[in-house]
Amino acid sequence: MYVNTVAAWIGLRRLAPVRILLLTLALLWPVATNAQQSAGTDAGLGVDGVIADYTVQPGQVLEHIMNVRLGKDAPQALDVQVDARGLGQALDGAAIALEPADDTSPFSARTFISNIDHTRLHLEPGSAQSVKATIAVPDDVNSGTRYADIYFHSEPTGSGRVGVVLATHVTVILSLAGSEVTQTGSINKLEVAPVESGKPIQVTTVVQNTGNRHYRANALVGITDSRGKQVAQVLVPQSGSSILPGFPRAYVAAFPLLDNLDGLPIGAYSVDSKIVLDDGRLLDDHQTSFQVTEPYDPFPDLDPSTRVVVKYNDEEPKPIDAREQADLRVVFSDTGKVTGTVVLGRFKTTPSGAPRISDATVDGGLNKPGLKYWGLAVQGFSKGIAEVTGFYSDAELNGILPNSLLLAHRVSPAPGWVKLDNLSVFPNAQNTRGEVPVQVLTASVPIALSGDPVAPTLLDALGNYPVIVGAIALVMVGLLGGAFAIGRRRRSAR
Amino acid sequence: MHSLPTRDLFGRARRGLVAAALLAGVAIPVAMPALPAAAQAAPVGSLSFSPSTSNVPSVPAPPTQAPTFTVDVMASASTTAVFGWQFGFTYDPAKVTVTAINMTDEFLSAGGNTFHNPCDFTTTAGTVVGCASALTSPTATGVTAAGRLMQVTLRPIANGSTALTITPGSTGSFLSGSGGVTLATTLNNGTVNVGPVAAANLAIQNATTVATATPAGASFNVTFTVANTGTASAPAGTATVAVTSATPATVSVPVAAINAGANSGTLTAGPFTLTSGSTLAQVTITDGSASGSTAYSFAAFNSTGTTQLTATLAGFITLTAPPAVSNFALAVGPNTFGGAGNTLNVKSNLSSYSVTVAGDNAGQFTEFDPGTSAYVAPPAGAQLANALHVLTGTVNVALSGAAQPFVSNTRANYAPSGAGDNYTITYNQQVTGNDAPVNPPHTYREVVTWAAAGVF
């Protein structure tokens, strides 16, 4: 804080440049470098017995033995704490080790964990420790399933910028023998995000497990227009662990509508969401409606005359050579078989929205000019890499150094424009090439060709200032004329 | 018929000569070298002390004398009729002394009249010689049943141990047969322990099972340690590892001699392989009277299609975090660090796993005092306005205080090499012109929590 004090004392606190300079200096203050932990071949914190799934009787006492070990290549010893926690889940399915105050589920087995024989461990590299949890099922618990979390977590490493905590959840599932399993659920939220051209329509379904046991379920979401015609349908498979009883889970369906590039006209639409168990049983069905107040265009900036649409039907996607239409070539790898659609084309103008590629890096740009822009989007792809090759002509370079050319895509809102991976430039072939994961391309991503301008010469620079150049020329002429006149006078005097 | 008295006379004379010779031998000790082992016949019986080891209380402080105790000398049943015996024994006179010897000789007396030559235990300290007995009846046919030869009374002198070592009689023999023939005899020496005794005490420790492959499968090794918790060295021996529901059923592991208070180091037996259809092997390790147990469990995780997992134990997750970051200098604008070499590695044998990421202080870098290892939270300290972003591939998570899904994978996509899944981690931190600097040695700090869980 002393920097602020000094700045205020010298009356410069409100001067942003000085403040930024001082902040930079302070942040750059050297910090002692700790030994860097590295992900060696055997450097991790491992736990055996991470799922304790038992069928139990009322009053039964059982022991669950876990083995925790630290790899021999770990750069330092690790202190590990073992806690009995409640097992919780976030809306997105993330496992949460609930503190006692937050563990209010009637299905909690946290208090059944009567003892953990080692709650604090000091592990040297290469060492291991057995940990035994004693689980006592109360006499009066005789039906359903109970859950708990034996939570292993290390002390933070280092004291520098970013410390690290390693943790492992040991999931405890106690099924009371002979009890009836109830698998029920209820959709308690179905909403559509505001519809915006260029972005997939997003529908969120939240379902609550109202049964007495965990289960896996998928969401089948469809959009229907005002005449009852289905516009699109998406299956959202469950991700992460099963839904615990008493906990909600969100399913987010995205509709990029790449197979309907005409978009949606203004009007009322309805959404139907079904939650279906893995075995096909319907858990719950819910409908809602939404309004499209402006015509919805899935790819609003794309020049229709350059647009290329390629569809795949359960096949490895072949390369797309769209040089003739859009100066672009796309080659996919590691995608597996795909049933889906690829849409690409050139943008008519600079893509709308922020940031622009010419913006300062502070604002998410690359501080470089954009030469040309493409749009590229995929639907139905789940993995893989797209190698993108953008072609240009010399006339399009507009003073940009060919060897500095690059491709970048925009991730909004942060971090903004990002260079493609494995960039390479081929000036003789007049193209530049880079790679991008296909998951990035599910949101109609703009791709830009950019580079560094040729450094201006002094004359180039002065070319922008003709008055100054004229003045300098007059001065030079005057000096030369004066020298010539003086010379003539001296020769005449002799 | 007249020949019978003559034969009987000769027989009596022969036995009398045997007794005379025996006793002469006792009376006039003659050094008799032992026969070479290869020439010795198979033993017909044995001589031993009973009890073989006598543990008696410590010697009290003078002038109180330690109480006496007795040790019997026993002959076993023999395969050849025994007509006489002779032997002596030695001991450490600094530890005990023989105070009396009662030649009860129930052994030989069962065969008829006997002649006893008493032992000499007073001439030389620590040495008992001249003990002998022979059947004298001309009709004796010898004895083959076991019995006691004598009862020795001893008094402790000082704490410690001494052996009771059987020595041959004057003719070099121990048990004699008809005609004085030497019968091969097994000798079982005795021991007397006075007071506390130094002894080895073995214990099996740290018994555990280790899968031979990663991810774990049906094969495993057993590791353990043999510790000597006693007060004397333990000789080299052999530990036996026995398993159920796996093959081989037993494995022997040599164990070197272990000093008192030391251990063998980690010993390994195996590999064992679970028999088909078995998911659990019980393991028992024995070394002498020491024993330990452990178990190995492995079952492939299967989903029944309705989310219930049919196997439970032996699932593992190993999480290797990217390194802590110590010296990255933040500046106004976007700050990207980590990247190549900054790897999160996840190994698991579960059907699938997931890893979440969370941050301290809602994911925002907060002023940190290294001296106290504590945050200096606002309003006293500074905190960056924007949360730290953690990225890998297309995943971009803005840290918050809550765990958020980061990466996951299923077994079908695990790295076949078993080296686990590597995720290159990049951090992105936006610093604004309104973010306050901190006064060194304070720094900005954020702790990232990586948590792995099996998917069920």
Fold topology:
The complex is a heterodimer of chains A (494) and B (456).
Chain A: H1 2-9, H2 16-27, E1 45-48, E2 51-56, E3 61-70, E4 78-89, E5 95-98, E6 113-116, E7 120-123, E8 128-136, E9 145-154, E10 162-176, E11 185-192, E12 201-209, E13 217-224, E14 230-236, E15 248-255, E16 267-277, E17 282-292, E18 308-315, E19 320-322, H3 323-326, E20 328-333, E21 338-346, E22 370-379, E23 385-391, H4 394-397, E24 406-411, E25 416-419, E26 421-426, E27 431-437, E28 445-450, H5 458-462, H6 466-493
Parallel strand pairs in A: 2-10
Antiparallel strand pairs in A: 1-3, 3-8, 4-5, 4-7, 4-9, 6-8, 9-10, 11-12, 12-15, 13-14, 13-16, 16-17, 18-21, 19-20, 20-23, 21-22, 22-28, 23-27, 24-25, 24-28, 26-27
Chain B: H1 3-27, E1 45-50, E2 53-56, E3 69-75, E4 84-90, E5 96-102, H2 106-109, E6 114-117, E7 127-135, E8 147-156, E9 160-168, E10 175-176, E11 182-183, E12 185-188, E13 190-194, E14 202-211, E15 219-228, E16 237-243, E17 246-247, E18 250-255, E19 263-274, E20 280-287, E21 290-297, E22 316-320, E23 333-348, E24 352-359, E25 364-369, E26 374-375, E27 383-387, E28 389-392, E29 395-398, E30 404-410, E31 421-431, E32 443-454
Parallel strand pairs in B: 1-12, 2-13
Antiparallel strand pairs in B: 1-3, 3-8, 4-7, 4-9, 4-10, 5-8, 6-7, 9-13, 10-11, 14-15, 15-19, 16-18, 16-20, 17-19, 20-21, 22-23, 23-31, 24-30, 24-32, 25-26, 25-27, 25-32, 28-29, 28-31
